[in-house]
């Protein structure tokens, strides 16, 4: 199962900071791509330790 999460990226001085608001993880990099790759790795490691429980889908 593939999960999708939001990545918010902003620049702080010389580094880009990427945050995942749904999980609460954050990372940084010298480029946007590097910040997102580092965020992906941090989020994957976090989810290995603290998996998100799937929510039942509501019917209309």
What does this structure look like?
By secondary structure, this protein is of the alpha+beta class. It has one domain (8-49). The chain is 30% helix and 27% strand. It is built from one helix and three strands, in the order βββα. It has one helix spanning 32-49, and strands at residues 8-12, 15-20, 25-29. A hairpin with a 4-residue loop joins strand 2 and strand 3. It is elongated, with a radius of gyration of 13 Å. The chain starts with 7 loop residues before the first strand and ends in an 11-residue tail after the last helix. The model has no long low-confidence stretch (mean pLDDT 90).
Give the topology, please.
Elements lengths: L7 E5 L2 E6 L4 E5 L2 H18 L11
Antiparallel strand pairs: 1-2, 2-3
Keywords:
about 60 residues, 3-stranded antiparallel beta sheet, 1 helix
Mean pLDDT: 90
**Which oligomeric form is depicted?**
single chain
What separation lies between the terminal Cα atoms?
A: 23 Å
Query: Count the strands?
Result: 3
The dominant shape is elongated
Indicate the percent of residues in helices.
25-40%
The class by helix and strand makeup works out as alpha+beta
Strand content: 25-35%
Rg measurement, Å: 13 Å
Walk across the major sheet and give the strand order: 1-2-3
Largest β-sheet summary: 3 strands, antiparallel
Please write the string of helix (H) and strand (E) elements: EEEH
Poorly predicted runs of 5 or more residues: none
């Amino acid at each position: 199962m593939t999960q999708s999460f939001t990545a918010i990226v902003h620049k702080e001085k010389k580094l880009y900071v990427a945050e995942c608001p749904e999980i609460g993880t954050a990372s940084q990099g010298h480029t946007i791509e590097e910040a997102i790759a580092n965020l992906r790795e941090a989020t994957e490691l976090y989810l290995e330790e603290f998996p998100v429980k799937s929510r039942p889908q509501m019917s209309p």
